[in-house]
Amino acid sequence: MTSPLRIGFVPEHFSTPLHFAQKHHGLDAALIPFPSGTGHMITALRADEIDVGIGLTEAWIAGLGKEGFEGDGGYRLVGTYVETPLCWAISTGAKRPEITTVDSLKGGKIGVSRIGSGSYVMGYVLADNNGWLSTAGAEPFSDTVVLNTFEKLRNAVNSGEADFFMWEHFTSKKFYDSGEIRRVGEIYTPWSSWKIVASTRLTRGGLDARVKDLFEKLDKGIAHFDANPDEAVRYISENLDYSAEDAREWLKTVKFPAETEGVQPGVVSSCVSVLRKAGVLVEGKGMGSDEMTA
């Protein structure tokens, strides 16, 4: 008898369709939260602690595109979870008067959750967008401070341990509203923001039937999400630490696919191209974009 899938996910507003798939459409899986994000899920997949992960496109691709991982990389891209780009808010401490604009972050200390995470990768994209990379692979910041959790990132920009960090806009907003941290700017991913990956144990010789079932149930969860915005707002505001007002505003900005199975090759190749330009990946090293998808 096969065991239920162990699915890693980030316990934020984006997880609502996954919750609906389990609550309303019989998804048989253990949902395992990773508040520290996609980089942590990569470690868990490679350690056989989870079977599937739902996380940020750039982190999954960076994880497979970097040289030096052991074996077969541990996972492959199998599905698309969110079609819209992600808005990363750029934050600093509430009392950091010397940091006024994005330009003042050049050469500063960037806080990230983990090396290879979305917050890490987007630092290089930010640097590339602003012309701070004199050569590919150049370090645009004086230090990269690994802090694991959103709470520690917020504490670090207030203590001075880090100068700034990037996190999803609506997750950050309540801390702007409370005055704990201050917004400096924002940056959007130049690709669709969330992908589904499966352990290579489940992709050899064809996709495991449990992953196929996940796609079917997730598609139904997304359809329920789209048809019941009030239920979505209620779930998000009561369970995920967002205000109902912010949840409603977020609903206006996000689009989930009607069919989650599959990944467009162009999305992967364009992400790889940007990450190489930003110096996160090096051409000729690591896995090529055509190898990353099962």
From TrEMBL:
Residue span, Ca3427-like PBP domain: 88-187
Annotated signal sequence range: none
Location in or out of the cell: Periplasm
Protein keywords: Signal
Family recorded in the similarity comment: Belongs to the bacterial solute-binding protein SsuA/TauA family.
GO CC term (a single one): periplasmic space
Gene3D superfamilies, per database record: Periplasmic binding protein-like II
Name by which UniProt lists this protein: Ca3427-like PBP 2 domain-containing protein
Natural source organism: Trichoderma cornu-damae
Primary location: periplasm
InterPro entries reported in the protein's UniProt record: Ca3427-like_PBP2 (IPR054364)
